[in-house]
Design goal:
171 residues, alpha+beta, Sulfite Oxidase, Chain A, domain 2, 5-stranded mixed β-sheet, 5-stranded antiparallel β-sheet, 4 helices, 10 strands, globular, signal, Oxidoreductase molybdopterin-binding domain-containing protein, OxRdtase_Mopterin-bd_sf, OxRdtase_Mopterin-bd_dom
Length: 171
Amino acid sequence: MFSHFKKITLGLSLAVGLVSISMAQEMAAPSGDVVLAVSGDLSMTNDGDQLLLDLDMLMALPATTFETSTIWTDGVHEFTGVSLADFAASIGVEAGQFLATAINDYTVEIPFSDAVADGPIIAYLMDGNAMSVRDKGPLWVIYPYDSNSLYRSEVVYSRSIWQLDRVKIVQ
């Protein structure tokens, strides 16, 4: 019970810290393994000129969950993560491009215009479970393909980067 309370308290503390990002120049360093390194045109860092985030820090942001099929999986799956819009707002980004890079150095450009309500998420759960590297994790940019036909295009599919581990913000 105490560990559950401690986890909730930690999550709330991280959420408060992330919400106030635009007012701060530095944020606390991650306490767990880094799953995402953010660099580029940032107003906030916690490791030199970059922002390092662990899974708990991402999970402390508002969560978005939706069900969708993908061209890479069978059937409909439930994905949970932080919306690209909430992610951008939490790190103080209001314009530009997200250069998203996977662990194998594959990089895609995601325009800031994709960071909209009911848009893509940086998923950290599929069907309620963490995603292993083998299963396209630990982070996967997922669009709600089934809810909007505009998301079923080669351009959008190319932006659906899995094994995401770096994002660079460029203007």
